[in-house]
Design brief:
The complex is a heterodimer of chains A (255) and B (297). Chain A has 255 residues and is an alpha/beta fold. Classes of the chains: A alpha/beta (255), B mainly alpha (297).
Chain lengths: 255, 297
C-alpha cells in the first residue's frame, strides 16, 4: 500500500500545516490552523477578508514567522527557520505570486524572470534565458520579453510574475489573491494560465475570491474565518452542500 | 578695508539653510521631491543670480578703472595677470570637493546601511552619528579634524604624510557623509516593502536585495539631492582657507596683500565668485532637469 502511494506520489503531503498560531500585536490572526496538501494537489482557501488567509500563505514560505505550531514544506521545517539565510533553501522550493504582482520595475519582463535563477541559483545564463523565453511563451507573453512592467497591463504583469515564480522550478506554488486587482477581461487570462499549471500537476495553494474558479480547479477547499478553518471538503460538497451555517452564510453573500 | 569679501561663514549659513529646508521637505513629502525641488535650486543658482553677478563684476571693474591713477596698472590687467595663479587655487578647490564627495558618498552609503540594519544597536549608533555630523557646523568639524589628525601617519616603517588639504577633505567629507546617508536611507525606505517581499520570496539574500533590486530603483531619487550637495560642498571648500590650505580664497588674499590696492578687492572677489557660479550653475541646471524628468513619472 505505502509502496504504491510513494510510486504515484499522489498522497504524500508536500505541505503540512499543524496548529499554526500567529498574532500581530493584540490581534490573533491565525488561531490554530491545520491542513495537508498532497503532491500534485490544488488547494483553495476561501473566506472573508481579514480571516488570515494571506498571512497563512506568507507563513508557508517564511515571509511571516509563526508564533506556535509547525509547518513542513517538502523537506523543510519552516517553523524552525528564523533568519532569511536559513530560508533560502525553502524559497527555492516554494514560490509565491502576489496580489499586486510586485515585479521589479527597473527590469524588463525577461530580466524579471531570469534574475533569481541566475543570481540566487547560480544557473548558467544561456540556459536560464532559454527557459525564461519558454516560460513567457507558456504564459502567452511572447513578444513582450523586452517590455518593462510599467508598459504592461495588470494581467500581463501578473503573468510575468507567474513566469518569474515558475523560473525557480518550485515544488509548490502559492497564489495570493492573484486576480483581486485585475479587471474581468485580464482576470480570465491569468486564471487560464493557473488552470493550465494545475492541470500539469503543479502543487498549488490558492487564496482566492474566485468561487467559480475554485470550484472548477480545486481538489480540496478550506473555508476560514477569524483565523480558524470552519469547514473543508471537496468543492462539489463544500459549495453545493455546506455543513456549517457560517459557510452557508458566506457563500450566499458571495454567490 | 577687508569687509568686502563675502564671509565664508555667512555663505555656509546660507547653504545650510538650503540643505535643511530640502531635508524637511523630503521628510514631509517623499514623492513630490521633483517639482518642489526646483524652487530651491533656483534660489541658489538661477540665471538671474548669474546675470546680477556678472553686472556687479563688470561694474566693479568699471568703477575701479575710473578711479585708477594713470601711472599704475589697470584692474583688468591685474586680474588677467593673476588669473593663472587663481586658477591653480580654484583647481585645488575642485580637487578637495571631488575627493570629499567620493569619501563622503562611500562612507555615507555604509552609514545608510547601518541606519536601515535589522540590528537595533547598529541603527541607534548610526542615528547618533548622522545627527551629529548633519547638525554640527562645518567649520567646527573642519577645525576638529585639523587638530585631531596628526600631520603624518606611521604605518610600521612607512610614514604617510597627512597634508592639510587631505585633512580638510576629510573634514568636509563628514557632513557630506551624514547627508548622503540620509538621502540613501530616505530613498531606500521610499521603495514599497512589497519589493522586499518579492525579493525574499525569490530567495534573494538581504544584501542581494539591497544591491540588485532596491538601490537600482533608488538612483533616480538620490541623484538630484546628491548633486545638490556636491554644489554646496564645492562652495564650502573655501572654508579650507581658514585652516590654511592654499585654495582660491587663500590665494586671493595673498594677491590683494601683495598688490596692496584697495580698488582691486571688489573686482577680484566678484571674479572668484563668478568662477564658482560658472562651475556650479551647470550642475544646478542639470540637477533641476533630472528632478523635473523624474518628478513626472
Amino acid at each position: 500500500m505505502t509502496h504504491r502511494i510513494d510510486a504515484t506520489g499522489s498522497n504524500v503531503p508536500i505541505v503540512r500545516v499543524l496548529d499554526v498560531h500567529k498574532s500581530f500585536g493584540a490581534v490573533e490572526v491565525l488561531r490554530g490552523i491545520s491542513f495537508d496538501v498532497a503532491k500534485g494537489e490544488a488547494v483553495c482557501i476561501i473566506g472573508p477578508s481579514g480571516s488570515g488567509k494571506s498571512t497563512l500563505l506568507r507563513c508557508i514560505n517564511g515571509l511571516v514567522t509563526i508564533d506556535r505550531g509547525e509547518i513542513f514544506v517538502a523537506l523543510h521545517a519552516v517553523h524552525r527557520l528564523h533568519k532569511d539565510v536559513e530560508m533560502v533553501a525553502l524559497r527555492k522550493d516554494v514560490s509565491i505570486v502576489f496580489q499586486q504582482y510586485n515585479l521589479f520595475p527597473h527590469k524588463t519582463a525577461l530580466e524579471n524572470v531570469m534574475m533569481a535563477p541566475i543570481d540566487v541559483l547560480k544557473q548558467p545564463r544561456r540556459e536560464v534565458e532559454e527557459r525564461a523565453y519558454a516560460l513567457l511563451k507558456k504564459v502567452r507573453l511572447s513578444g513582450k520579453e523586452q517590455s518593462y512592467p510599467g508598459e504592461l497591463s495588470g494581467g500581463q504583469q501578473q503573468r510575468v510574475a507567474i513566469a518569474r515564480a515558475l523560473a525557480m522550478r518550485p515544488q509548490v506554488m502559492l497564489f495570493d489573491e492573484v486576480t483581486a486587482a485585475l479587471d474581468p477581461e485580464t482576470r480570465k487570462e491569468v486564471l487560464a494560465t493557473i488552470r493550465q499549471l494545475i492541470e500539469e500537476g503543479m502543487t498549488s495553494v490558492l487564496v482566492t475570491h474566485e468561487m467559480a474558479f475554485a470550484r472548477e480547479i480545486a481538489d480540496h477547499v478550506y473555508f476560514t474565518d477569524h483565523g480558524l478553518i470552519v469547514e473543508d471538503g471537496p468543492p462539489s460538497q463544500l459549495f453545493a452542500a455546506p455543513r456549517k451555517e457560517r459557510t452557508r452564510a458566506f457563500l450566499e453573500q458571495i454567490l | 578695508m577687508r569687509a568686502t569679501p563675502p564671509s565664508p561663514a555667512a555663505l555656509i549659513c546660507q547653504m545650510r539653510r538650503g540643505g535643511l529646508s530640502q531635508r524637511e521637505r523630503r521628510q514631509n513629502q517623499p514623492l513630490s521631491l521633483g517639482k518642489r525641488g526646483r524652487g530651491e535650486g533656483a534660489a541658489l543658482f538661477s540665471t538671474r543670480t548669474g546675470v546680477a553677478l556678472a553686472i556687479v563684476f563688470v561694474a566693479s571693474i568699471a568703477v575701479a578703472q575710473i578711479r585708477t591713477q594713470p601711472a599704475s596698472a589697470s584692474v583688468l590687467e591685474l586680474l588677467v595677470k593673476w588669473t593663472p595663479l587663481l586658477a591653480t587655487g580654484f583647481l585645488f578647490n575642485l580637487l578637495i570637493s571631488f575627493f570629499a564627495m567620493v569619501v563622503g558618498t562611500a562612507s555615507g552609503l555604509l552609514l545608510a546601511f547601518a541606519r536601515i540594519s535589522p540590528r537595533r544597536s547598529l541603527r541607534g549608533t548610526s542615528w547618533i552619528v548622522v545627527q551629529f555630523f548633519r547638525n554640527a557646523p562645518w567649520l567646527v568639524l573642519l577645525f576638529f579634524v585639523m587638530y585631531l589628525l596628526p600631520f603624518q601617519f606611521r604605518l610600521g616603517s612607512v610614514t604617510i604624510p597627512f597634508p592639510d588639504w587631505i585633512k580638510a577633505t576629510l573634514g568636509l567629507a563628514l557632513p557630506i557623509m551624514a547627508n548622503v546617508a540620509e538621502i540613501v536611507r530616505g530613498a531606500v525606505q521610499s521603495i514599497p516593502t512589497a519589493q522586499w517581499d518579492a525579493a525574499r520570496s525569490l530567495a534573494f539574500s538581504r544584501r542581494q536585495t539591497l544591491w540588485k533590486i532596491i538601490l537600482p530603483q533608488c538612483v533616480k531619487r538620490m541623484l538630484p539631492p546628491w548633486m545638490n550637495w556636491y554644489a554646496i560642498l564645492t562652495m564650502a571648500t573655501t572654508l579650507a582657507s581658514i585652516v590654511g590650505v592654499s585654495e582660491v580664497m587663500t590665494i586671493t588674499l595673498r594677491i590683494t596683500n601683495a598688490e596692496g590696492r584697495t580698488d582691486l578687492l571688489i573686482p577680484i572677489y566678484s571674479y572668484v565668485l563668478l568662477w564658482f557660479f560658472l562651475y556650479c550653475y551647470p550642475i544646478s541646471r542639470w540637477t533641476r532637469r533630472l528632478e523635473a524628468r523624474y518628478g513626472q513619472r
